[in-house]
Amino acid sequence: MWWLLASCGIVEALLSATYLIGQQQDGSLTLRKFFFKGTFLLLCRLAMIGGVFSIAAGFRSWTLVLNGLALGAFGLVPYVWRGPLAFRPLFSLLLVIMAASTGIIALTTAQIRFRWFLGPVGVAAVGFALTFLALAFGWVTLPHRPESLNICIGAYFALGAICLLGVATGSFQSRGSPHPA
User: Fold this and answer.
1) Helices 145-174 & 115-136, crossing angle to 10 degrees?
2) How far apart are CA 103 and CA 160, in angstroms?
3) H helices within the chain, ranges in order?
4) What are phi and psi of 61, to 5 degrees?
5) Contact 52/70 with Cβ under 8 angstroms?
6) Do residues 118 and 166 lie in contact, with contact meaning Cβ atoms separated by under 8 Å?
7) Model-level pTM?
8) CA–CA gap between residue 143 and residue 41 (Å, rounded)
9) Which listed residue, 93, 106, 151, 172, has the most CB atoms within 10 A of its CB?
10) Domain boundaries, the chain
11) Crossing angle of helices 29-37 and 39-57, rounded to 10°
């Protein structure tokens, strides 16, 4: 099942790259047009695919299933939500769930292997969860909110990709030994 974790990690890396590249101020006009017209639907579809991979990889891990459900719902929200899409508590709580479950995955796996690598990744993921929670309820505000928020989301997906690829590498090396929590 290491390849499912790796696939989800690759999807999260693609999500991260798309969020971060789309925010470059010096990007070409073509890239900006692409980002604003068709890429939003691509992001949604990638999130749903990543959710499926995560759920499939987590048949013995409730944290991976929770992460996959939140990631899939994150991609599904624009298809079922009517009205303006903004960083509302429901949408942001999906990010909180994803970040918290990523932190749990990294920290529990760090107890078994790759402590030097996955421990800090887990702590950073929990930090993202707390940050998204604070942003959701307005306890903290960001300057240049849309751009800053997309950069935060892109950075979180990069961290999630690092975590899942690290766990997949450990699972590959041990050929299916213990799954994270």
Assistant:
1) 150
2) 9
3) 2-21, 29-37, 39-57, 62-80, 89-112, 115-136, 145-174
4) -130, 110
5) no
6) yes
7) 0.80
8) 26
9) 106
10) 2-174
11) 60
